[in-house]
Amino acid sequence: MVYKIGQKVRGKVIGIQPYGVFVAIDDETQGLIHISELKHGYIKSISDVINKGDMVDVIIMDIDEYSGKISLSLRSLHKPKFHPFSNKRNIARYGKKTGIGFKSIEDKLPKWVEQALNEIDAQKNSRRNG
């Protein structure tokens, strides 16, 4: 059978290695699900996610045109439980929510506009006098 990138196929897990899982798509074709493509998030042990002999639905991510190796993904069939930036307030990098938002810009904008207009007037006057 001819396979295409993006195609959803069903296969049987025939081997597990520390870096990923080998899946037989048909009698003559197998592909690899890299550990990063098994599921969203951290995977401590592959056997926590999948076992030898399991039947799995996967997406063909890539087919190497020279070697014919097929890269598969189980993760792409599942939506992540959360968006990576959905919980910003609990991540130290983002700090605490202050609720200020654009208020500080709103307060400073009139002063900035006034300064810019004064600089423009100063430049016009220096051109007239110079």
From TrEMBL:
Q: Which residues form the S1 motif domain?
A: 6-75
Q: Which NCBIfam families match?
A: S1_dom_CvfD
Top-rank taxon of the source lineage equals: Bacteria
Q: Which InterPro entries match?
A: NA-bd_OB-fold, Ribos_protein_bS1-like, S1_domain
Q: What is this protein called?
A: General stress protein 13
Give GO BP annotations, semicolon-separated.
translation
Provide the species name: Alkalibacterium thalassium
Q: Which Pfam families match?
A: S1
A single MF term (Gene Ontology): structural constituent of ribosome
Q: What does this protein do?
A: Binds mRNA; thus facilitating recognition of the initiation point. It is needed to translate mRNA with a short Shine-Dalgarno (SD) purine-rich sequence.
